[in-house]
Amino acid sequence: MKKIIIALLAVLFCICTAEAKYQKGYYKPSSGKYISGHYKTNSNRTKLDNYSTKGNRNPFTGKKGYKDPYKTKSFKY
User: Fold this and answer.
1) What mean pLDDT is predicted for residues 15-23?
2) Considering only CA atoms, which of 53, 71, 49, 51 is closest in space to residue 61?
3) Burial (0-12, 13-18, 19+ Cβ within 10 Å), 38
4) Residue 17 phi/psi, 5° resolution?
């Protein structure tokens, strides 16, 4: 039981200390759309810790991640 509590506290600590910054809303001239403000994490070289990745949850909205981190994009030539 102690191990479970310690593990849950460790996960909670990681979630609470994740560095996130607020991206102000902006107008995107190329598409003519307004992108509303949102929180985003600092950039790094992995997709596994993004809020939108499957298995993760956005702590600000509570939404579950939906993107497959191992799916590769197809390039158009």
Assistant:
1) 69
2) 51
3) middle
4) -100, 5
Nearest to 63 by CA among 75, 54, 73: 54
Contact (Cβ atoms closer than 8 angstroms) between residue 25 and residue 34: yes
- Torsions phi, psi for 5 (to 5 deg): -65, -45
List, in sequence order, the alpha helices (H) in 1-48: 2-17
Helices (H), 18-76: none
Give the per-residue pLDDT at 51.
81
Q: How far apart are CA 63 and CA 77, in angstroms?
A: 35
Q: What is the pTM for the complete model shown?
A: 0.42
- Give CA–CA dist 19/36, Å, rounded: 20
Q: Which residues make Cβ contacts (< 8 Å) with residue 19, sequence separation at least 6?
A: 41, 42
